[in-house]
Amino acid sequence: MMPVSHRASILASLAITVTAFVAPAPALAQTAAVQEPLQAPMFNHQLRRLHSEETVDLARRFDGQAVLVVNTASHCGFTGQFEGLEALHRQYKDRGLKVAGFSSDDFQQEAKDEAEAAEVCFVNFGVSFDMFAPIHVRGPNAHPLFREIARQSEEPRWNFHKYLIDRNGKVVATFPSRVGPDAPELRKAIEKVL
Question: Is 76 a catalytic residue?
Answer without folding.
Answer: yes
